[in-house]
Give the backbone structure.
Amino acid sequence: MKLISLTFLLALSLMVNAQNNFKATQIKFERVEKAYSEKWETLRKFIQAGDFGNQFSMVINAYKSEGKLEIWLKPNADKSYKLFRTYDFCAHSGTIGPKITEGDGQTPEGFYYINVFNPMSNFHLSLGLSYPNTVDYGRTGKNRKPGSDIYIHGNCVTVGCIPLTDEKIKEVYVLSIEARNAGQEKIPVNIYPFKMTDGNMKKYITQFPAQATFWKSLQAGYLAFEKNKTQPDIVEVKGRYLVK
């Protein structure tokens, strides 16, 4: 019994150290250190005022047509997210509709997560997304490339990414580090073509009928989040998304 307890405590200690080391490693980079010095004190005040706790989880929802990126937070002990901040895209690339092939200039649509923190980005700071996934590969088809290197980043230019001003990416980057450091291994980034209300669905499917089936699978995730304010459990099956 003592051996089990000691093993558990050691594992817990290693987990805590790994989490703390992530932030400690990131903040050694000049741009990240500067982002913390400029933004963290104010962000922390709003986090405390919103009762998000000292350790929180995070979801990012992005809407291409509206050009909005939403940051949703919740204390780790809670189930439901609350809207914390909304940022404007500062540039746009392509049109609504998913990214299909490399070089098409489209911003992806789908359910992803942050898989790269780049503190030395050519675009100030950048957060890489897990594009392409199996749904994207299925859409692209054989003998074509779906593209890669999709980021939320600064510098206000884009070819398929989600661009923010440098001041705004500092905030999003710091919040993402805090969520990752608090134990959130995968921070969801849900990219929608528009706010997927029934009215908008009818409007845009009339204009883009070829996207109807795909958009309906995205809408299921959108509506689940809107209803419960929790990140839905989404699986990729045969080139489409299913919400459990």
In short: Residues 6-18 have pLDDT under 50 and may be disordered. The CA atoms of residues 217 and 241 lie 6 Å apart.
